[in-house]
Design goal:
Rossmann fold; alpha/beta; five-stranded parallel β-sheet; 224 residues; binds 2'-deoxycytidine-5'-monophosphate
Length: 224
């Protein structure tokens, strides 16, 4: 039997990778891995256990007993921590920030690596995150890296949070996005960088339909 097909989509937060990964997975009938959700679940676990996020050893310790799973919902898959639906909690900016802090730790990344690789199933997987094409699935068949300016990303995140009923302030979001970019790009372990063989797509001036089309055309080109 041939190996499941893997498409990776990496990029900074708010670059649109989550929505694009969902659309492309649906279009191809592939499974979806939102790796950021796994880091957010880990952060939520650490926050709930009131662990000092600056203490790598303590954070890894609480991940020894890390019970998570995803269930297919109507739109997105629903994340569970200890059998509790935590969809809204993991989307909070505070959880995203905590995720970015603990994601700097090599021991945390090592702990979560296998959990991400286990998501690979036939006929294929669309995996989105920061290091899908560089570390988690370095042999992926197709790799994308999405870029979008911090201003545009803050606007998109604002719209997304409001639609989820979570209040937010654009200026504050932009400051948080810049901080998180800085941390994600400059960490020594799996920094946010395009894989050398990734197609870099700047989505700043394109809408979701246009980027989807561009990516699907590239997939069609490579696979036919
Ligand atoms: O994509 P996101 O905003 O849900 O990710 C939240 C944080 O998790 C992000 O700031 C960095 C971390 N993360 C990571 O380090 N590696 C990944 N593959 C996915 C997310």
């Amino acid at each position: 039997m041939s190996e499941p097909y893997v498409i990776t989509i990496d990029g900074a937060s708010g670059s649109g990778k989550g929505s694009l990964a969902l659309r492309i997975a649906r279009h191809l009938g592939f499974h979806l891995l939102d790796s950021g959700a796994i880091y957010r679940l880990a952060a939520l676990q650490a926050l709930r256990q009131k662990v000092d996020l600056n203490n790598e050893v303590a954070v890894v310790e609480v991940l020894q007993d890390f019970d998570i799973h995803f269930e297919e919902g109507e739109e997105l898959s629903i994340p569970y921590l200890d059998d509790e639906d935590v969809s809204s909690q993991i989307r909070l900016e505070s959880t995203g920030d905590a995720a970015s802090i603990i994601a700097q730790y090599p021991a945390v990344r090592a702990r979560l690596l296998e959990r991400q690789q286990q998501c690979l199933r036939a006929p294929g997987l669309v995996a989105d995150g920061r290091d899908m094409g560089t570390v988690v699935f370095p042999n992926a068949h197709i790799k994308f890296f999405l870029y979008a300016s911090p201003e545009i990303r803050a606007q998109r995140r604002h719209k997304q949070l409001i639609s989820m009923g979570i209040s937010a302030n654009i200026a504050q979001l932009q400051a948080e996005i810049s901080d998180r970019d800085e941390r994600d790009r400059n960490r020594s372990e799996s920094p946010l960088l395009p894989a050398p063989d990734a197609l870099v797509v700047d989505s700043s001036l394109l809408d979701l339909d246009q980027v989807t089309q561009l990516m699907i055309s590239h997939i069609d080109e490579v696979t036919t």
